[in-house]
## 1
Amino acid sequence: MRRVAIVGAGMTKFIRRAQETGKELSFEAANMALNSCELTIKDIDCIVMGTAPDAFDGVHMKGEYLADGAGAWRKPYMRSFVGGGTGVFAVIQGWYHVASGLFDTCLVVCEEKMSSCQPHPQGAFLTIFDNIIERPLGPNLLWIFALEMNRYMSVYKIPKEEIALVAVKNKRNAKDHPCALLGEDITVEDVLKSEVLAWPVQRLDVSPISDGAAAVVLASEDRARRITDKPVWIDGVGWCLDTTYWTNRDLAYPRYVEAAAIMAYKMAGITDPRREIHIAEPYDPFDYKELHHMEGLLLCDKGEAPKLTAKGVTSRDGELPVCPSGGLLGVGNPIAAAGLMKVCEIFWQLREEAGARQVTRKVRTGVAQAWGDLMQVGTVVVLRR
Amino acid sequence: MIRKVAIIGTGYIGCFPTSPHLSYKEMMFEAACRAYTDAGIDPRKDADGFVCVSEDFHEGTSIFDEYVPDQIGAYMKPVHTIAGDGIQGLIAAFLKIQTGLMNIVVVEAHSKASNMMFPEHITSLALDPIFNRPVLRNAYSIAAMEMRRYIYERKIPLEALAKVVIKNKLNALKNPSSAYPAYVDADEILAAERCFDPLSSWDIASYADGAFVVIVASEEVARNLKVKPVWIKGVGWCTETPSLETRDWVNATYAERAAEMAYRMAGIKNPAKEIDFAEVDDSFSYKELQHMEAIGLCRKGEAGYLVMEGETGIDGRIPVNPSGGSLGVGNLMDATGLMRIVEAVGQLRREAGRRQVEKAETAVVQSWRGIPTTTGAVVVLGI
């Protein structure tokens, strides 16, 4: 199999970007990624776009609309889509474009502009539910997460305080991220005292909506070695989509993330992820989700992730740093861009370019993961220096 | 190219002008079952990956990939959506097999256009919200402008466009799965009211419902199955620009570039000679001619003559759209590309019945994503 590396990365600030269109955000990120590895758009053979529902911007065929912003003028250009998992999946798609042998370089751009959906993007999320069975109930995304969080807490007897520690850690980590929206020092009490949205989900358990874009440049092995001394290899990819009928699933454990992780680990030759993975960026739109996904990624036993967090194992100076970027809770959650931001973070950490966010331990292998749909899809990428 | 990739099975249901008797899930299930039977594979055991093609606004559901796995036997498997054209979906599957990661990948696309109360309004939402939407109330006006520019530059008489409509609707009469077959004469077409001058309603393909599933596999797998493999010899795709202000209004540049890429891969130097028949996008009558020129089936300015002389009929020198195309079968939105693939595979396997073209060894299939896009894909198939 042809080896593919990430050679450059860039991202915009995640915040409400009322002044810029989605095209401009895409351009900004794409340009940063190209500049970071001293390439121009002429060096790029094909473009991959990742962006979540069209309903946010109210633009039909949003991929087509964003094409020129992402640099796709007169180039092969394709948009993939797996809901919230899109950010990491776009890298997988870029990977198979290059690994197929058809292209030597690929620019992967992920963009999301949620603020144009007024009064709140939750209105757009209403349209993700089954149009016959669920939509008449007017479901809110927070409700189904409340169901899942409750299930997770009651099956493994996890107190809310332990879950709140994730929000505390990630928002603190985000203080060092120049693109972050919500980097701040908060305490467990702050989380527990914040407004209840749908029990047990409270205001500070949730990531903020925002606008932003991120981009990475991929290259084949020989090209990558000519572009940079520090290529970061995409050694494993995996993705898995579970059944539509989420109401029939045990919400305590994300088996689809496990299946995606196993696929990626197998490809990367990883047999003992707990020892071989040094750093992780699991998807954390809600604080319990980080724990949920650490378990799905087989980085700890079921129900054990909160203990690792409490012991400080997952902090930046711990044995297994988790979401050193600040994650979606701290940096922000422009859906597809947030997923790609996780890949960017592992890229910078493995190259020791993360600045104030650089983790203490020496890291060689990292995993980034995103999740989406009706608690249904897992997308996983294993990166190595 | 590293690995040879074959189409080992196809299945479809449709096409219907409307389908109140079937949900999209039932249509997908039906098409998938037929494809699996055709290829002789079990999706739960044999398929390594799945690609579904859809656009949220066409479905009326955001994040539509949520609703695809169960009815095609794909749950707990690697599935993803391509928010693009059916042929782009096929290319995504082709690329995954090229990497060596997968051996059998299933591609699905469907159209449930009859669920859309006002499809034109939805198309208009694809316009740039700041620059174009306020001034263009109906996106069909883009096609009308392009048609006017194209027929002016190439000096194409409206009779030639009427001939395209007549031919495709006639071909559709021989295709049991077409939704809009007809005998129609040029006078009737030319007398029709111009709804978006110079476009008349005859020039616009009407929407139809249908579902299509195509299964692709690596050479090792394809050779071990009973079915006759149809090889994917070349693929290409391209997006020119979403900007109305700077695009090429005469030539279909996206199709030119996509074809260039596909022919290079397939080793085709002179497509006009080496291609036996073609399925090209005809969602508007003039588009068939524009796309024929773009993918090199004739020189620029020649397409009109070819059609007038009947060279593109089923028994002509270079049959174009033997299926009946979008004008005859129906506009299946992003599933149209897969409909054409299914047709080409049927022709190459010599299973096309009354519309079988005589020499069918190498085919080119081209698709366009419709107004207001400039995205297209090309696949070269052969036996």
Note: The radius of gyration of chain A is 19 Å.
## 2
Amino acid sequence: MNAVVTVAIGNIYEKMSKITHPSIKAYAEKIGADFVVIDRQQISQSTPHWEKFNIYTLLNKYERIIYIDTDIIVRDDAPNMFDIVPFTKLGMFDEAAFTDGRISAMEQACKTYGVIAKNWDGKYYNSGVMVISRTHKYLFKKPEVEEFNFYEQSYLNAMIAHYKELGELVMEDLHYQYNRMTCMDKYTGEERFASYLIHYAGYPSLEYVLELIPRDLDRWKSANGKYNYKRHILVRVFGGLGDQINSEPAIRFLKENIYPNDDISIMTHFPRIFSHLKLPVFHHGKFKPTVDGGYYDINTLPGPETLQWRVVSNLLCHTVDYCSMAVLRRVLPVKDKQPKMEVTLEDVGNVLDVVGSNVNINDLVCVHPGRHWPSKTFPVDWWQKVIDGLHEAGLKVCLIGQEEVLEKTRGTLPVEVREGMIDTRDLLDLGSLFALISQCKMVISNDSSPIHIAGAFDKPNIILIPSCKHPEHILPWRNGNQDYKAKSLYKKLTLEDVSAQPTEVYGSLADKVKGDILDYIADPEEVIKTALEMCNGESK
Amino acid sequence: MKAVYVVRINNYFPELCEITIPLIKNYAKKIGAEFVEITERKFPDFPPTYEKLQIYELGKNNDWNILSDADNLIHPNAVDLTAYLKPDHVGYFSGFDANNMFEMDKYFERDGRNLGMATGWVMSSNLTHDLWTPLEFGWEEARKRTKREFIIDEYCLSRNLAKFGLKFTGLNFSKAIWDQFPHLGVEEEPDRKAIVEKAKNIVKEWKI
């Protein structure tokens, strides 16, 4: 004979039982078990939670017991947990990875109860739902001391660890869907209604829970058995413009391949990058959650404090890969690594308004004399020689770039514009810059966002002057490779001077240059010669 | 497949077409479109402008159909508009309030947008090809529905926009785009010599 057991003692739990017990009782009936409510304080000296240890006695009568806290509701299609957990195993949900403070709770419980668990595997089980067999009776002998440590939970975990270590107890980890707590919101993005058992542990107050549970029961009722709920995902896009462009392939893959029917929102400094994805896109700070429950929260560019950065930093791999690891925990197939962007006729019109309706955008060689870290900033004279040389060679030079408004850490260098050149610096919005680059003949830049924008389009040739990152970690993938209409020109990389050994424990920065930057970057003549070869090659 | 159509019935205005047609042809080539001159009458009861509706049959297998009036100039560097127009939208340069020029019928009323389309430049895709559906009634009935006979083509296309609930967009997002597709407006300028002179001046300014 089997039973479903719960504890409901005290006024507030009595109120709660009126709301929750019908669903627990219905579950008991569905699986052919008695429904047993412990509603009087019988063996505990402190909180009623220790009344769970009545299970010790109940196991004399019942062969198997599913214990369910009274602050839990059960969906009508919940499977029989006796079928899921083998008789010989104790079924509980391991919450350690999703909660804080469980290690210290275990340490304290072991100390209090004199348990030595040298080989503790780090698992810490929630005692709100337990699938118990008679063979586990020994675990439920109530101790003399009732230490308040997540109520009785840490004591039980100390015992579990102890008996596991002795080889006398084998656990069956229950899926979170059988004990769904709010701590899972941010790890799954799933609405709690998608689980079979909702456990209201972790909410601010029992009064709040008393109001919430009836609403939740109504949600289930209104579903009429069709329990399909969207997952909610919030993607926070960080970094400079180039970094944010490089996150687009991963976010697109997320939308198209991983969660095609779920709710994905994007926060970014540059909403325009993602306009084609037809997802809600917000400026940072403007996002307002629309669902009751948490979002699975993704940062596209994890910082130096994160495990991902310690495995491989953004400096030492391609940002498309870095972002896809952060967003998807995978590296994308090559064919999916190319960013996509939308260009509208309005963008094109804006470009033509700036460059002139007579100008053939297809002829323009866009040069971005970028200013950022010292290791990415080349001398003004160097850029001047490049643009003058291109101009004298008959190419139509068009300067591009934007002064960063807020931090002013990025921008363009003050090169002089000769007659016949076009200067669009600070005149184009992002969409217009996309439009210009999408149609131009060539983009020449240091490691900066125009290179990544060009990567979204087939037309522009690319000349990259890399310095502090390896060119293969910058150049975009187009048509399955990084050499498509693209070249990188350099003598050596400033990256080579950076301490990037795995044994470097203090980290290292790549923003400085040791010595003269001209010893690293290609000569202007080589840039001009290569640009001519590529442009002429195209015209052939 | 793309096509650019120009209606030239009865050897329309040859002195002007000598200037405009090569530029329209050049644009068609640039965007990878076939250039088609509609010179034969298929709807002899209607005014010649209605021959634009031949595109319904001629272009039914195309991805894009573009109608250009013969009095349009197109700059050699003009934007390939098919690269930017969303295929579920009809594109045209200018419009007017339909109820100022046409008798409203149930389609206009139901649609409620009151869209009158100037047909000097019209673009459609295979998703919006219904735009070119000829009228289901003859000229006797049609002539009663417009203020001026020669705008029967504009009546038909505007009515189809309403009848089929087609989405539309203007194309003149900037002065620069407008400048790349100047419409000489022959019907508004009776002095043919002046029109030809205007066309020559524009082309001269373009330095091509």
Note: The mean pLDDT of chain A is 94.
## 3
Amino acid sequence: MHLDASALVIWIGSLELVGAQIFLVAIVLDACLRRRSAAVRRGIWALAFAVALVLPLTRLALPASDLGLSPAVAVSLLALWATGALLLLVRLLRGHLLARQRLARSVPVAAALWLEDLAGRPGVELRLSDETDTPLTVGVLRPVILVPRRMLDVPASERRALLAHELAHVARADCLLLLAGAVVRALYWISPLPWWALRSLRARAEDAADDAALRTGIRSSSYAAQLVALARKRLGRACPAPAAGLRDRVGAILDVHRVRSREPRWSVTVLVGAAALIATTVTACEARSAPEPADAAPMHHAAQHR
Amino acid sequence: MARRKHDPDPLSRRERQIMDIVFRRGTATIRDVLADLPDPPSYSAVRALVGILEDKGHLQHRVDGPTYVYSPTQRPERARASALAHVVNTFFGGSATDAVAALLDLEGRELSVDELDELGALIEQARKEGR
């Protein structure tokens, strides 16, 4: 048994093409819905990534094609794609290991005020870290909110806003979504669109979490000032002060006309179900419109019998 | 922890920009670096970064009257090898962002002091308007 390299190249190439179209549709939808809440726009990107993740499975049933590439060319192209995908997956794995190490070196928060504000949110752990200068949420199955030690004594309104921001990430399973997004980017890395899409997904997820923070009642100017103060502290240490999109975020936070609804809140099950439906429909339409080659076998059969 | 000379620590984007300027000029003062940097930070920020590069062993200085004149400690060929290591480190160094949802982005374009001041002015205006 051996894999037909040429057929595999075509399969991956067509997958990349359909994936690019899905992200293009998401870009257009996001642009059309730019006056809707960040939660809605995040939902669009979440659905696009879920479809892209499920798409390879639905395309296994498509008939295999062959453009007659020479084995050397086909293997080279496969190696190129596989190298890029593998590098990105290794990068992703490294990131998760670093996050676990950071978690392992953190300690549980004992401050009563923080724990009171967290009360009623089972399954979420609050921990203190000396290795981060910004609050962050880690973990897919058991989310943990890491709080920088220096922020332990912030005023009550800021504490509640920060917690609301991170809890919004937990409620929407943003860590799981970003993990899926990074895997999708690794699979479809050849096109620039999934790279753009992942940045957009992150930005909309942060905007939606900012909206949750503002719903605690903190003044938008106070919340924005908190973010800018964090960025300034990084600059003062002569380290890079990375804050891509901070200008856009501050503009959004201060915008009195902005819609800040929390809906939609799709469960993971609903999202995956919708994605499977869309991916299957797209694949079925493609199968109906493609001319039937002679003696065509589905992709997974072609791999077994050639 | 004492810094080691010729420390193989990867350079930040700003540090790399400064090294490129010094390599191109051969020798450079702080003002020369400030003049050539794209979207430059303040004089004191550049001086701090040059000091860090000197501590890391990438730069050395000689005194010319009241001015320090900086020059690289290694040849460009060796610097190119470390530049490749920098690319690799940057690629994998940014992996932390893939695994977390952070309040402030952990990587990306740096904001200058002026840009942060602009945001501060916007926020102050919003505060006066009661937002």
Note: The first strand of chain B starts at residue 59 and ends at 64.
